[in-house]
Amino acid sequence: MSLIIVGTMAFDALETPFGKVDRIIGGSATYAAWAASNFTKSIKQVSIIGGDFPEHEIDALKQRGVAFDGVEVVKDGKSFFWSGRYHMDMNTRDSLITDLNVLAQFNPVIPESYQDCDYVMLGNLAPAVQMSVINQMKHRPKLVIMDTMNFWMSVAMDELRSVIGKVDMLLVNDGEARELTGEYSLVKAAKKIMQMGPKYLIIKKGEHGALLFYGDKIFSAPALPLEDVFDPTGAGDTFAGGFIGYLAYTGDLSFDNMKAAVIVGSALASFCVEKFGPTRLQEIGIENIDRRIDEFVSLINFEIKR
Amino acid sequence: MSLIIVGTMAFDALETPFGKVDRIIGGSATYAAWAASNFTKSIKQVSIIGGDFPEHEIDALKQRGVAFDGVEVVKDGKSFFWSGRYHMDMNTRDSLITDLNVLAQFNPVIPESYQDCDYVMLGNLAPAVQMSVINQMKHRPKLVIMDTMNFWMSVAMDELRSVIGKVDMLLVNDGEARELTGEYSLVKAAKKIMQMGPKYLIIKKGEHGALLFYGDKIFSAPALPLEDVFDPTGAGDTFAGGFIGYLAYTGDLSFDNMKAAVIVGSALASFCVEKFGPTRLQEIGIENIDRRIDEFVSLINFEIKR
């Protein structure tokens, strides 16, 4: 089934303890589309780019089934640019440069050809932009998931809470869940967030995996223990794209299938961090993903003799 | 099969965000014995206490099958006393008072009646004390596991490395694994630690669960997401006691059974933190543990449609 992905398509300059790149494509919608397109060939991208965004990168995504009708191209504008440096722990980073460029004028228009979509992923963006997309949908999609970040909690908490009240699922990391609710316990934080509106919640914990909440149910997914996390940029977007791509492919919104989707998202994210930018995601296919999922199975599989 | 537990039996004064207690029994060997005695009724305790250690606490352990021949009682001495205050995150704490008391003269003697034991747990103690126990064993036990803490890395690294070189398994937390090896990646740290001698390694990650390493194999166990961690004191010792108690009961040292033992230890630890001190461990039975293990199964169980 069709999937709308809303987010940034950008350039990043990245520095990790393992090296640096000056200019590589990035953006939440880029990572999410690469991840999701392993499962569904009907992806409707919503973003804004400058004339500088590489044609061959667009073509590569189109070949994966990604529609660009909803991607505004500002010919004489520059794409969003972000530059960051990761600390040794790879969980914390300094933003060095944030040039919004064309993103400053992002006012997404959902094309008529996108209106049949049942699955919507709202990547991390200004809450007002996320809300505008929801309001443009003529029928209620089966599943709307949203990502956000702590920045919006500081500058636009009211708008953020309004959007959270409209979606089916929120994805945040553990620090953001705590900041959003004032609760240290993630179980308590999850309850408060689900009281804000979303039926489902995913709390991402980086190298410690992710938790999926639905009512009183909790699913705990591990992260694959890796020798090196080469570049964590985009891992969260890749997780979200793999997660919702798998749901769109299976068309099954049961809690059991959501658990499977969390593992699929985790598997995709474990590839993402192996190389700079989306490089590794562009190399892998479904066979690689299947093998990685098997690694997750053997990582957590146990049987108790009683 | 019989199990030797070496460690402290003590008094603790504890302060957490949820309350405080001025004087409650504690100590690594106390927690470990309560946990292990759910599975094996042949536990040989090795410790040192003062005349102030409550008789009824000793009797309660004896009724669980814990032998005290190896526990030295210094009638006119005071038991080890530790006082600590936990921060809001429950992962960090300040030591307020550490009165070694009789622990300063701890020179464990392994009684002849303990020599048939195949399982040995060395709780966190001075490495020289741990080594003395190993050297007193007339035949090599099937499994010797040891706990330690970062303090010994600062003051007795050479002795610590010698003991690590003699045991089958080391249990440390993630920070200690990093400090011991200088590696941030836990996978790399694990390889370095296993090169020091132990065939097996468990890295405890508190609310994020635990990792079991053996050669190239890794098992990831979640922690049960809890609304409140009331008092984390003794959770690591309880984990270790439940782990080795289950192994001693099953007598099966395969990697598959070690994975099960990690879940059993995690289940026990999840009870430990529900009340101050070992209170909760003294209340529960095998039925509670079985139900808790079922919660672990549903927490991580998934199936992928391919």
Q: What are the SSEs and their pairings?
A:
Two copies of one chain form a homodimer.
Chain A: E1 3-6, E2 10-16, E3 19-26, H1 28-36, E4 43-50, H2 55-63, E5 66-74, E6 80-86, E7 93-99, E8 119-122, H3 127-136, E9 143-147, H4 150-155, H5 157-164, E10 169-173, H6 174-181, H7 186-195, E11 200-204, E12 210-214, E13 217-221, H8 235-250, H9 255-272, H10 279-283, H11 286-300
Parallel strand pairs in A: 1-4, 1-8, 2-6, 4-5, 8-9, 9-10, 10-11
Antiparallel strand pairs in A: 2-3, 6-7, 11-12, 12-13
Helix pairs in contact in A: 1-8, 3-5, 6-7, 8-9, 9-11
Q: How would you characterize the overall build of this protein?
A:
Two copies of one chain form a homodimer. With 306 residues, the first copy, chain A, is of the alpha/beta class. Chain A has eleven helices and 13 strands. A nine-stranded mixed β-sheet of chain A has the order 5-4-1-8-9-10-11-12-13, sandwiched between helices. In chain A, strands 3-2-6-7 form a four-stranded mixed β-sheet. In chain A, helix 1 (28-36) runs parallel beside helix 8 (235-250) and helix 6 (174-181) crosses helix 7 (186-195). The mean pLDDT of chain A is 96. At the A-B interface, helix 7, strand 13, helix 9 and helix 11 of A face helix 7, strand 13, helix 9 and helix 11 of B.
